[in-house]
Structure formats: C-alpha cells, structure tokens
Write a structure and sequence with these properties.
64 residues; mainly alpha; 83% helix
Length: 64
C-alpha cells in the first residue's frame, strides 16, 4: 500500500510534466516526499531508496 502511494504520485508528476504543467508537478513533490518518508518509516522501502526517489523526481521537475 505504501509503495503504491509512491508510484501513484510519481505517475501524476510525470503526467503533469508531459503536459507541460510544471507548477502542478512541483506542488506534488511534497506529497511524494511524505509518501516516501512514510514508506521508509514503516519499513516498506529502505531510507536511502526514499531519498533517491525524492532526489530524482526533484531533479526531473527542476529541469523541466
């Protein structure tokens, strides 16, 4: 369930970036961070993986 929440937010961010809606994608970054941190806190994913996911998506949004 926690991994699914992360994937859902990632899909939404990529959809907005594909449509050229950078502001909406940026707004979803906080939701991504929250979902990734919760998953790491509950042991669904490793804390370094959560950090890596957040960093990659932030970089993607910044360069869009």
């Amino acid at each position: 369930m926690r991994k699914g929440a992360i994937r859902q937010v990632i899909r939404q961010i990529r959809k907005h970036l594909g449509a050229g809606q950078k502001q909406e994608a940026q707004a979803l970054l906080s939701h991504l961070a929250k979902a990734a941190d919760k998953a790491a806190a509950h042991g669904a994913i490793h804390k370094n993986k959560a950090a890596r996911i957040k960093a990659r998506l932030m970089k993607l949004v910044a360069h869009a």
